[in-house]
Amino acid sequence: MSIPYNPFELFNLPILKDLLRRNKYFLVVQRLNWPGVPAYKGFMVTPYEEKKTAKQHAEKLLPKEGRLIDLHVELEKITGLIDDPKYLVFFYTFRDPDWASRVLKHYQKNIALFFKESTTITIIDRTDIELAFQDGKLKAIIESNGPVTEFDAYDLIKQN
User: Taking the model in full, what pTM does it have?
Assistant: First the structure.
């Protein structure tokens, strides 16, 4: 078994202070599923300058998946989450510039197995997999001799 590769940047107090300095007071905090992150212990933080935009994101979440935090009112809530050693809190940015290719390379066997067992898509040399961050989730957009299909990236890379 290989060590999981996680491309996300850890959310910490310096990042939080920078968000406050840049007037990004609205955070959508939601559960993160990723190899190596214990179930229900990982979170993804997406910042917003405008409450309206943050609220639109938060409204797309499933019940108990996450919520909107207004730092004007709930600063202690997010600092408590950052400081709590039983949780892993990640920022919506990536640690390295070539993160997408590293994710695809690291999890290539899991991805191939996912397509073989869970879809009718045949992975061939002309298959394009693009990873994109949408509404706090990493999505895999697949184009392979036909229509474009979208999956949660976690579904492709998790070990079955």
Answer: 0.86
